C-alpha cells in the first residue's frame, strides 16, 4: 500500500469520556488519505477497548496499546512510527471540523516555506456547549508569531497543529524536560528554522474543563513556559541552549547556575508569579508558595490586592489572609 498523505498523532490516557467524538471527528474528515496512529498510554479505563473496536472497523487506524510512558514519549514514538511526510496532531478530548485536514494540507502545499500550520479554535465546555472566548486569537503569519513570542503570547494550539515530520525530527522532536509545555518549546525551537502560522478559521473545537492537563498542572506549565522562552532568547543571542539535553528542568532556585548568570531564578519566579494570579488551581497548590516567595524577594506587586479578593472567591480565605498580611508587611517596610 502507498504511504498516506497525513499521519494523525493522538495519545490517550484515561480518555474514555470524550474519546468517541474525538475519533469520529477524524474519521469524518473531508480529506481521507491518512493513517490514524492512536497510542493508548497505559489507560486504566475503557480507552483501549474503544480504540481496538474502532481499529477493527477502519483499517486507517493503527493502535499502539502499551504501558504508561507519558505524553512526550508517546508523541515522539508516533513521530518515528508515522509513514506520512505530514503529521496532524489531535487530542482525545477535542473535535476537529470536517474541513480541517483539507484546509491545512492545502496551506502547506501552497507555502513550502512553512513547516507548521495551526488554526484558530472554538472553545467548548464539558458537554460540548459553546464558551465565550476572553482572549485574542492566535497569530496568523510568521511575523505575527515572532511578535507574539516577544510578549509571551499564544503561538499555535497544539491539537490544531499540522507540521512537516522531517522538520520536527530535525530538531529532535519533543523535549522531555518541558513536560506540560512541550508544544511551546517545540514551536520556539522551530521558529528559528522554518516559518509557522495559523489559518484564521476555527477548524478545531477545543474542550475546556477542570480535569484537563493544562488546568491540573498550571504552575509546572508556567514555569516550563518561562524557561522555554529563556532558552529561545539564549539561542537567538547565539549562546548554547542549556536546556537542550535535559530530561527534566531543575528547581527555580537552580536556574542561575543552569544559565550561568545571576538573576535568572528571580526573573522566572516573577514572570510565573504574575501569571498565576488568575489561576484558581495554581493558587490552591504550590503556585501560592511561589507567589509568596516572589513577594519576599521584593518582586512586583501588580494586582496582588485583587488576588486577595480572588482567593476569597476561590474558597481559600486562609491564603487570602496570608497574602494580605504579606502585602501589608512589605508595604510598611
TrEMBL record:
It comes from Novosphingobium colocasiae. Keywords: Glycosyltransferase, Transferase. PANTHER family: GLYCOSYLTRANSFERASE, GLYCOSYLTRANSFERASE EPSE-RELATED. It holds the Pfam family Glycos_transf_2. Gene3D superfamilies: Spore Coat Polysaccharide Biosynthesis Protein SpsA, Chain A. It comes from the Bacteria. Residues 7-168 form the Glycosyltransferase 2-like domain. Belongs to the glycosyltransferase 2 family. One of its GO terms (molecular function) is glycosyltransferase activity. This is Glycosyltransferase 2-like domain-containing protein.
Amino acid at each position: 500500500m502507498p504511504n498516506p498523505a497525513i499521519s494523525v498523532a493522538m495519545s490517550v490516557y484515561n480518555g474514555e469520556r470524550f474519546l468517541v467524538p474525538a475519533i469520529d471527528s477524524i474519521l469524518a474528515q473531508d480529506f481521507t488519505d491518512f493513517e490514524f496512529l492512536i497510542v493508548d498510554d497505559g489507560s486504566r479505563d475503557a480507552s483501549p477497548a474503544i480504540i481496538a473496536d474502532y481499529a477493527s472497523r477502519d483499517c486507517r487506524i493503527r493502535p499502539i496499546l502499551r504501558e504508561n510512558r507519558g505524553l512526550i514519549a508517546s508523541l515522539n514514538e508516533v513521530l518515528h512510527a508515522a509513514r506520512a511526510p505530514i503529521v496532524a496532531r489531535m487530542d482525545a478530548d477535542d473535535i476537529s471540523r470536517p474541513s480541517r485536514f483539507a484546509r491545512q494540507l492545502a496551506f502547506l502545499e501552497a507555502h513550502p516555506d512553512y513547516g507548521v500550520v495551526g488554526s484558530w479554535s472554538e472553545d467548548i465546555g464539558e458537554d460540548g456547549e459553546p464558551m465565550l472566548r476572553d482572549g485574542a486569537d492566535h497569530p496568523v503569519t510568521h511575523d505575527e508569531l515572532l511578535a507574539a513570542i516577544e510578549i509571551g503570547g499564544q503561538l499555535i494550539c497544539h491539537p490544531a497543529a499540522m507540521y512537516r515530520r522531517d522538520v520536527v525530527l530535525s530538531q529532535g522532536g519533543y523535549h522531555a524536560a518541558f513536560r506540560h509545555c512541550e508544544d511551546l518549546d517545540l514551536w520556539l525551537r522551530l521558529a528559528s528554522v522554518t516559518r509557522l502560522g495559523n489559518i484564521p478559521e476555527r477548524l478545531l473545537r477545543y474542550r475546556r474543563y477542570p480535569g484537563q492537563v493544562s488546568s491540573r498542572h498550571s504552575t509546572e506549565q508556567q514555569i516550563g513556559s518561562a524557561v522555554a522562552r529563556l532558552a529561545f532568547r539564549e539561542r537567538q543571542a547565539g549562546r548554547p541552549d542549556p536546556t537542550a539535553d535535559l530530561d527534566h528542568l531543575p528547581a527555580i532556585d537552580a536556574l542561575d547556575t543552569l544559565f550561568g548568570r545571576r538573576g535568572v531564578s528571580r526573573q522566572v519566579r516573577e514572570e510565573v508569579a504574575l501569571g498565576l494570579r488568575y489561576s484558581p488551581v495554581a493558587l490552591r497548590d504550590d503556585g501560592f508558595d511561589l507567589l509568596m516567595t516572589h513577594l519576599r524577594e521584593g518582586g512586583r506587586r501588580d494586582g496582588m490586592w485583587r488576588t486577595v479578593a480572588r482567593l476569597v472567591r476561590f474558597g481559600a480565605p486562609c491564603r487570602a489572609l496570608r497574602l494580605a498580611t504579606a502585602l501589608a508587611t512589605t508595604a510598611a517596610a
